[in-house]
Design goal:
The protein is of the alpha/beta class. The protein is 23% helix and 30% strand. The chain is built from seven helices and 14 strands. Helix 4 packs across helix 7 and helix 5 crosses helix 6.
């Protein structure tokens, strides 16, 4: 079977596309960026790929995301009714429920409850994405949300049985939406949409051949991690003392809230590292500062480390989600 094209609708108004050669081949066949609304450009981009089938990720700014606690025997209608209390947008959304934790009780005689992570996408958004791609003679096989696609970009970090004990916080940043995710190995347990929005100024240009430097180092470059350490993650150098801007403090406070939520559910699991993805992760100094304030090892995502031919073409944190889509369809994604 032919591998499909991975397509991500970014919050920056850019559609990023990537396809790998074969089901067990991690070599990039082609990649392309085209502006949303440029239908002619999209039709031209399609000619670069050897497939017309697609797997699609919608913009994270269009995703509804919340944790709720309900009775273990709650019906789907009851879950939707509970969600709509906080946001009527859930009524017209396609919803997925992820059970996170069960055996919760609020009192001795209360009913057994469970915590659900609910993820929704307005049906109009799904329809719009499909129409745009079908107008370019593409066939949509599957639509997912960025939180799943982004986490899949790191699957190859967790190939050993013991890797499930690693707890990571992944923060996807851009100017329209910031989403924080906490995963035990490959299993998502906490996700939250944050108020923080990354600005577009003072971004560092992503190096085609990054050089990894531990925080406090003296080089201005990045170095790719060696084979004995996680590939696909690079560590930003801390050039100066942690910054204390209002924006940074807002992000730190919100991330601390996510950490508290995680700790309330899993008090025995310590978060081992924080990984930044998305266009906001190009603010490498901000990412380094935030990681330092949280007391965590901080990294910038670069999934091109696993995709031959992507270096310098489709590398760096902005390609994390589309690369995750590619690796999801791979026989070697795990």
């Amino acid at each position: 079977a032919k591998r499909p094209i991975a397509v991500h609708f970014g919050n920056d108004g850019v559609i990023r596309m990537m396809r790998l050669q074969g089901m067990d081949d991690q070599t990039m066949q082609a990649s392309f960026e085209v502006s949303v609304g440029d239908q002619i450009g999209l039709s031209e981009a399609v000619t670069c790929f050897r497939s017309r089938n697609t797997v699609v990720s919608v913009p994270s700014s269009q995703v509804l995301l919340t944790h709720i606690r309900v009775d273990c025997d709650a019906t789907d209608d009851e879950v939707v009714e509970r969600l709509c209390r906080g946001n009527e947008g859930w009524k017209n959304a396609s919803i997925r429920q992820l059970p996170i934790f069960t055996n919760l009780r609020t009192g001795i005689k209360s009913k057994l409850q469970q915590e659900l992570l609910c993820v929704g996408v307005p049906k109009k958004v799904l329809e719009q994405c499909v129409l745009i791609l079908e107008a370019a003679s593409l066939h949509v096989q599957k639509i997912t949300v960025p939180i799943h696609a982004t986490l899949r970009a790191f699957d190859r970090l967790y190939r050993r049985e013991s890797d499930g004990s690693i707890t990571s916080m992944v923060v996807d940043l851009d100017q329209k939406q910031t989403i924080a995710m906490i995963a035990h190995g490959m299993n998502l347990v906490v996700a939250s949409s944050l108020q923080y929005k990354s600005d577009t100024s003072e971004k560092d240009k992503w190096a085609a051949s990054p050089i990894l430097v531990p925080a406090g180092g003296i080089s201005d470059e990045f170095e790719r991690r060696g084979e004995t350490q996680p590939r696909g993650l690079v560590q930003p150098k801390q050039k100066q003392l942690p910054t204390s801007t209002r924006e940074d403090d807002l992000l730190v406070d919100e991330l601390k809230g996510c950490m508290r939520h995680h700790n309330s559910l899993f008090p025995d699991r310590v978060i081992d590292r924080i990984v930044f993805s998305g266009s906001g992760a190009l603010h490498t100094q901000r990412c380094a500062s935030v990681a330092t304030k949280l007391g965590l090892s901080g990294f910038i995502a670069d999934p091109s480390a696993w995709i031959s031919g992507a270096e310098g073409i489709a590398s760096g944190p902005v390609w994390t989600t589309v690369a995750g889509l590619c690796l999801t369809c791979s026989g070697q994604s795990r």
